[in-house]
Amino acid sequence: MQPDARAIVFDLDDTLYPLERFVRSGFAAVAAELQRGHGIDAKKAFRVLTSATRGGARGRELQVCAEHFRLPDAIVGDLVDVIRLHRPSIRLPRVSVDAIEQLRGRWRIGVLTNGLPDLQARKVDALGLRFLVDVVVYANALGDGRGKPAPEPFHEVARTLGVMPARTVFVGDDVRCDVFGAACAGMRTIHLKGSHDMSPRVDACYADATAATMADVPALAEALVAEDWSVDVA
Question: Is 16 exposed, middle or buried (0-12, 13-18, 19+ CB in 10 A)?
Answer without folding.
Answer: buried
